[in-house]
């Protein structure tokens, strides 16, 4: 059985897009960057901890495989996680305005005795955002629960002047890289598709 250690609707949608049938695991793990920890190392560690904690929940099931993922926005070596409140969200967006930032997504696929890591690093450049636009976006509620206080697949698509890398990685689960890692673990995406899935 395949499991996704995330309740994120976006990650569930992207994994389902590959044709997989999977269960979801609800985890509540602290996401705190260690002093001196590089942004990439932090993202990879959190993703691995999610996968490992998820595997512990289902370890009694033979063949259980768990996917753990983390995505963060990085600007000037600072990790922009999910905003605490409206003021924090607006502050993040003001700092991202008119600049390029990196979005790091790391996926770990783990089972008993095996693991694979998938990495996506994308560069996103925002247009210049005025205060009215930022305040309106924050008021919409879309900024909350999103790294960097924006959802590239939502209204914030209008902010993105340029994106180099993986669009789905910026969303939260890089589809190509995840499919490659799952295939290496014995879960090829194409093999899970049925004729009825592609008919019509």
From TrEMBL:
Coiled-coil stretches noted in the UniProt entry, renumbered to this chain: none
Subcellular location: Cytoplasm
Residues annotated as catalytic: 70 (proton acceptor)
Catalytic activity: dTTP + H2O = dTMP + diphosphate + H(+); UTP + H2O = UMP + diphosphate + H(+)
Gene3D superfamilies reported in the protein's UniProt record: 3.90.950.10
Cofactors, names only: a divalent metal cation
Protein's UniProt name: dTTP/UTP pyrophosphatase
Species per Swiss-Prot/TrEMBL record: Pseudomarimonas salicorniae
Taxon lineage: Bacteria, Pseudomonadati, Pseudomonadota, Gammaproteobacteria, Lysobacterales
